[in-house]
Amino acid sequence: MRTPLLLMATIFCQLAATAQVDSLHAYRIQQFHHLALGENYGYQQLVALANDVGPRLAGSEGGAKGVTWSIATMKRLGLDTVFTQEVQVPHWERGAQERGVIWHGKERIAIPTTALGGSVGTPEKGLRGKVVEITDFKQLDLLGEKQLKGKIVFFNIPMNPNFINTGFAYGQAVRQRWAGAIEASKYGAKAVIIRSVTLRQDDNPHTGSMSYAGVKDSIPAAAISTNAANQLSKLLKDNSNIEFELWMACQHHGMVTSHTVIGELRGSVHPEQYLVVGGHLDSWDLGDGSQDDGAGIMHALEVAHLYTKLGIRPKRTLRVVFFQNEEFGLQGGRRYAELADSLNENHYFAIESDMGSGIPRGFSFDTNSERVAKIGKTVGPYFEPYSIYEFKSGGSGADLSPLNKDKILLAGLRPESQRYFDYHHSVLDHISSVHPREFALGAAALASMVYLIDQLDLAD
């Protein structure tokens, strides 16, 4: 009777004969999946990150603890080099007090509310004002200062459920979060509340970064849950005199020093060329950041683990990067690109995981469709046994975007996304939302793509 490994080797030899794939490379990819699913090393590290560190808002005590934990974890893995890059990041604190109340006549309705990242706080006793609902940014110009000054502007722009690509739906709706306060303050609004940017209908508000770029007077900005947004919108249809009361104790404390954490596995043929695999270490502070982006950095860490455990040396130096502060300004990604440029580093390929822990569906590449088609044609047969079929042009990852000016081949892992924005930036972004097997498949897919790009010289 054939052993399971011998049987697998036979299967992949047959695959090589019929699908024009190299049997050794196909076998290596099978090994990645076999080990990832069997050991689930990356998931175990993610559990430790969630339990031992928790939320890792850049500039916070949790953020600093995450850096220390990451350095120690990479060193335990036995990488050839572990080092950090100093990054200046904003220190913003949410504060203990976050409350929102709808005043419907004499009726007082408490609703789930959270400050948007970077918002100023309210006066100590809170603020209260009449609510004006906005469902399209064009309404701001139509209403003007006469109808918006001194009011609380309520942006109620849902994610479009008709889009299959939830990332696209998110992109269409998220402007209300980062630009709502900018636009409403132009007309004298006293505060902004937004509908949480999620398709899920529940009582969990979702935070996220906002901006005051070019604003003379900064106004408080908060998110309310989707259920609360629906309730407030319905009340406003019957009574235009609805008022909202808001309390937030958030504060800015300037810029502080943090770090991006990097580990390397030295290449055997072209050590001066780099293969980057990474995600961002920082997270929002409502959950423990397991989906965004604990899963991504643990995917990246497991790539290095799979190489070392199987005794495989990449041709080029594998660099595992835990970028600092993607959520609140992209300082880690920008600093990494600046240093790479100043040191004249030769980056061959870079890939990021920053869409959660769902079942892997494919990859997107920051390059033209013709080049992607060529890559897909080459690697596609290797991924068919694992039900991965999507190879398309598109974004890679926010942390990698500063590298794009050098025309490096950039890519992003694309997991199943239908539930990702249920958790995103909310209390539900918790280790309990991560399925160990789905996570392991994502790590193995990431390792497989890095391996194939490197071994087949596909970024030339």
Protein architecture, described:
The protein has 13 helices and 16 strands. It has two domains: 4-90 and 254-455, Aminopeptidase, CATH 3.40.630.10; 95-249, Glucose Oxidase, domain 1 (3-Layer(bba) Sandwich), CATH 3.50.30. The strands form two sheets. The protein has an eight-stranded mixed sheet, with helices on both faces. Strands 3-2-9-5-6-7-8-4 form an eight-stranded mixed sheet, with helices on both faces. The relative contact order is 0.17. The protein has helices spanning 4-19, 23-39, 41-52, 61-77, 138-148, 166-173, 175-185, 226-238, 290-310, 331-342, 369-383, 420-423, 436-455, and strands spanning 81-93, 98-104, 107-111, 113-115, 127-134, 152-155, 191-195, 221-224, 243-248, 251-265, 270-280, 316-323, 346-352, 360-365, 390-393, 409-415. With 460 residues, it is α/β, with parallel strands linked by helices. Mean pLDDT is 95; it is low at 1-7. Strand 11, helix 9 (290-310) and strand 12 form a beta-alpha-beta unit. Helices cover 38% and strands 25% of the residues.
List keywords for this structure.
460 residues; alpha/beta; Glucose Oxidase, domain 1; 2 domains; 8-stranded mixed β-sheet; 16 strands
Helical region count?
13
CATH-derived architecture of the largest domain: 3-Layer(aba) Sandwich
Rounded average pLDDT: 95
Q: Work out the radius of gyration.
A: 24 Å
CATH superfamily of the largest domain: Zn peptidases
Percent helix among the residues?
25-40%
Task: Describe the secondary structure blueprint for this structure.
Elements: H1 4-19, H2 23-39, H3 41-52, H4 61-77, E1 81-93, E2 98-104, E3 107-111, E4 113-115, E5 127-134, H5 138-148, E6 152-155, H6 166-173, H7 175-185, E7 191-195, E8 221-224, H8 226-238, E9 243-248, E10 251-265, E11 270-280, H9 290-310, E12 316-323, H10 331-342, E13 346-352, E14 360-365, H11 369-383, E15 390-393, E16 409-415, H12 420-423, H13 436-455
Parallel strand pairs: 5-6, 6-7, 7-8, 11-12, 11-13, 13-16, 14-15
Antiparallel strand pairs: 1-10, 2-3, 2-9, 4-8, 5-9, 10-12, 14-16
Helix pairs in contact: 1-2, 2-9, 2-13, 3-9, 9-13
